[in-house]
Write a structure and sequence with these properties.
- It contains 11 helices and 10 strands.
- By secondary structure, it is of the alpha/beta class.
- A 7-stranded mixed β-sheet has the order 6-2-1-7-8-10-9. A 3-stranded antiparallel β-sheet has the order 3-5-4.
- The radius of gyration is 20 Å and the shape is globular.
Length: 275
């Protein structure tokens, strides 16, 4: 059954309230395609019926499943390439020099299917391999996502051939993955050991996460309203140590909050340093 404008307006307000994600106009097709399987499983005939069931059990599993279906996205290995090169060539040596005996902490926000945090762990390994004479530093990558389905997949650390093909070189595949009996690829334990996955809605408090040297929040904020984006970036600043770095997506820019961040040109790419 086609989604009416009234149904769509009610649903997208619900989604924004629960996840911060703003659906643009004329995205009824996206709602229909993302929720079809879920509605079929529950025998739900319309979006109005779905919202009625959620309102009847506002803390039930159905609400979580709906938000999960609307927010689940697969991403790429080493997406855009330059952030990981900037990490190796600028950020890691700078932090190692500044705090040689402290553990490095990185937050991968909205980590989706896990490619970003695992790419960061590989980046750290590559830096250590290229600088064998330097002191090794401990590193913890805290990866968070709203989706229970994604987090479960992330923790397993296993990917099919199609997922592996999206941005991963053969050299990295051979070095950092083991082939499983069923033909999938499993992230090696040494790379997995740096990454800790946690459930987190970016609209909620970050207090339990602690302080970070680096925050990756890439290709996420484009889905939020300007007000929510500003709030998230302000609270992310509070998680960063002074002088720590924020990485945004290639199509994202931090045009406000000059009192909190300064822009750093990296050629290619731009990152932001916490004041």
């Amino acid at each position: 059954m086609p989604v009416t404008q009234s149904e769509f307006n009610i649903f997208r307000q619900f989604l924004e309230n629960k996840s911060g994600i703003v659906l643009g106009d004329n995205k009824q097709y996206l709602v229909t395609s993302r929720l079809k399987k879920l509605q079929d499983e529950h025998g739900i005939k319309s979006l109005t019926e779905l919202m009625a069931r959620i309102q009847a059990q506002p803390r039930g599993a159905l609400q979580e499943q709906v938000v999960d279906a609307m927010t689940t996205n697969e991403t790429l290995w080493f997406r855009d390439a330059y952030p990981f090169e900037v990490m190796k060539n600028k950020v890691l040596p700078e932090l190692l020099n500044k705090q040689p005996n402290q553990r490095l902490r990185i937050w991968s926000a909205a980590c989706s299917s896990g490619q970003e945090p695992y790419s960061l762990s590989m980046t750290i390994d590559e830096y250590e391999r290229a600088n064998l004479g330097s002191v090794k530093f401990g590193a913890q990558i805290v990866a968070t996502d709203l989706s229970p389905t994604m987090l479960q997949a992330c923790k397993a650390g296993e990917y099919d051939s199609l997922s592996i093909a999206r941005g991963l070189s053969q050299e990295r595949l051979q070095r950092y993955f083991d082939k499983t009996a069923d033909g999938r690829w499993a992230v090696k334990p040494a790379i997995k050991s740096r990454v800790e996955f946690r459930s987190l809605n970016l609209l909620d408090s970050y207090a339990a996460l602690g302080k970070f040297d680096v925050v990756f929040c890439r290709n996420v904020l484009i889905y939020f309203s300007a007000e929510a984006k500003k709030d998230i970036l302000t609270r992310m600043h509070a998680t960063l140590k002074t002088g720590g770095y924020l990485f945004l997506g290639a199509s994202e820019a931090l045009n406000a909050l000059p009192d909190l961040y300064r822009m750093v040109q990296c050629s290619p790419g731009i990152i932001y340093q916490a004041k």
